[in-house]
Amino acid sequence: MRLAIILFSVLTLSACSSLESASKQASNLVNLDSLIGKNWQLSKLVGVDNLSSVFGGGLPSLNFTGDGKVSGSDGCNNFSGAVPKDDLMQGKLDLSSLGSTRKACDSKGPDMLNNAFKNASSFSLKDNKLQLLDSAKGLLAEYVAK
């Protein structure tokens, strides 16, 4: 009888621990409704004090669709590509292999932004802001929903 009580206690505690872990994982998932279908406009790029001084063709934008695609502008060229929805739900973002038009750009902003895209590995959504983050969770760029 004593062994049965101990076994029951261990199983109960183990189940509670598993439920807590699953709950934490679920709370870390990104609500894609907050990301998809919005026009995100660049509001901050690390290393740049005045965005309009480095983006002569207008401010860059990002758009995510419900079918796992991203498109936008780097301030000169248009780009598009695929982003797995499972990755997005986990806060992961890889923008390093986007297809792009190849216009000659006379400002340095697009190259700086494309460098941020290559270094981005995750993102954060908070207060209607989309932050692109590097592998150390350092800020690379920030967009606001328009």
| Low-confidence parts | 9-27
CATH class of the largest domain: Mainly Beta
Can you count the helices? 4
Task: Estimate nothing, just give the exact number of structural domains.
Answer: 2
The CATH topology of the largest domain turns out to be: Lipocalin
Give the tally of β-strands: 8
The N- to C-terminal Cα distance equals 65 Å
Residue share in helices?
25-40%
The backbone outline, from C-alpha atoms, is globular
- How large a portion of the residues is in β-strands, by DSSP E? 25-35%
> What is the spatial order of strands in the main beta sheet?
5-4-3-2-1-8-7-6
Helix/strand order? HEHEEEHEHEEE
Structural class per helix/strand content?
alpha+beta
Quick rundown:
By secondary structure, this protein is α+β, with helices and mostly antiparallel strands. It has two domains: 1-29; 32-145, Beta Barrel (Lipocalin), CATH 2.40.128.
Please provide a written account of the structure.
It is a single chain. With 146 residues, the protein is of the alpha+beta class. The chain folds into two domains: 29 residues; 114 residues, Lipocalin (Beta Barrel), CATH 2.40.128. It has four helices and eight strands, in the order αβαβββαβαβββ. It has an eight-stranded antiparallel beta sheet with strand order 5-4-3-2-1-8-7-6, covered by helices on one side. A hairpin with a 4-residue loop joins strand 2 and strand 3. It is globular and about 40 Å long. The relative contact order is 0.17.
